[in-house]
Amino acid sequence: MIKHKSGSLTFYIPDATAQSGAHFFDAGISAGFPSPAEDFKEERLSLDETLVKNKEATFYARVSGQSMIGAGLDDNDLLVIDRSLEPANNKIAVCFLDGEFTVKRLRVEKKEVWLQPENPNYPIIKITEDNNFLIWGIVTNVIKKV
Questions:
Q1: Is the N or C terminus of the chain more exposed, i.e. has fewer CB atoms within 10 Å?
Q2: Spatial contact of 100 and 7, defined as CB atoms under 8 Å apart
C-alpha cells in the first residue's frame, strides 16, 4: 500500500495479494439471541472485492478530525473513495480545497456548491470562484475500529 499524507487525510492505494481474503461466515450474526452453530457456512471474503468496484480509481484515506461525526465518520476511520463516481447533491466527497484535502457532504443547488460538515461546531463552506476547488472522489464505504 502506498501512503500519502495531506492535511487532514492520509491516502492509501489498495494492494491486492494472491492470498487476500479472511474467513467469512455467511450466517448473519445475531445481535439478539445466539443462532445455532451448524447454520454457519464458511468461505473466504476479500474486503477489496467487496468494497472496491473500480480498482484503478479507488483509494483509501484515514480521517483526521471530527467534522463528519454526524455522518458516522470518526477520527481514524478508514474511507473507501471511488474517483470514478459522479459527484451529486448529498454525496459525501473528498475534496481538494485551497491546498488541503477535506471530507464533507456536497450540497449542490443550481450553480452553487457548499461543503456541509456533519458537526454543528464546524462552518458550512460556500465554494466561490476564488477557491482552488476540486471534487477528488466520492466516499463509498467507511471501515471502523471498535
A1: C
A2: yes
